[in-house]
Amino acid sequence: MSYSEIIYQVERRIATITLNRPDQLNAWTRTMETEVRAAMTQATADDDVRVIVLTGAGRGFCAGADMNLLNSVIDGDAAPRAPENAQPGGIAGGLDMPPDFHLRYAYFPTVPKPIIAAINGPAAGLGLIMALYCDVRFAADNAVFTTAFSRRGLIAEHGVSWLLPALIGHGHALDLLLSARKVRAPEALSMGLINQMHPQDEFMTAVYAYAEEMATMVSPRSIGVMKRQVYRATLQSLEEATMVANGEMPGSFVSEDFKEGVAHFVERRAANFSGR
Questions:
Q1: Is residue 90 part of a domain?
Q2: Are 185 and 140 in contact (CB under 8 A)?
Q3: What parts of the chain have a pLDDT lower than 50?
Q4: Considering the entire predicted model, what is its pTM?
Q5: Beta strands 6-11 and 183-184: pairing type?
């Protein structure tokens, strides 16, 4: 499939999705929205892909919604936005998840492969939300984050009022949402908004080292099951989560990946997981 506003590449079992409007700091458009979903679907269907990296071209990750799009909404020229309550569904061939993860931007958890946000620069508004829906977040040390919404007369969009408290706690979430102040990478790391921070010139090397380790040393079957467990657990009690885990264990014990996981450890060799 050809893309106009993203770049899709696969190398060493890692699919990289690059938002590609660098002159606009990769501001989000409807075309980009459609293409990112298509690329996530493509990566899900490709057995050669084990890990997905989402990043931005140039000096930014994503500056949020394109201002031309926002202006068209003000002028009444834009087509109505898809209602957030509409359920386009999870990714085709992806994980079986509750309806909460079938909404417009909340589908990332249905992708059965780990998604790493490689935040190479500013991440604002909707751009920040897309990073939050990723499973893991790495940032360059010069990255800057802002919710932006309150400074545009908007509200906490697309589930960010749920995402932020879950990741960084109630107090930090209200701080970032109400003030819309800029948060630099060191502070983002200290509050848990990102998992790792690296110097700009070493940043992507660190991202791909982490991704390659997951692509070669970790069971794809385990990743898919655990990802489903963790996201479902956000809507479960401890008892429910434990019962789900107990139900998953027998399948793990008879899987090919379990046999390989034991064999490569005992034989002191590199793993060769099949995902089955």
A1: yes
A2: yes
A3: 75, 78-80, 82
A4: 0.90
A5: unpaired
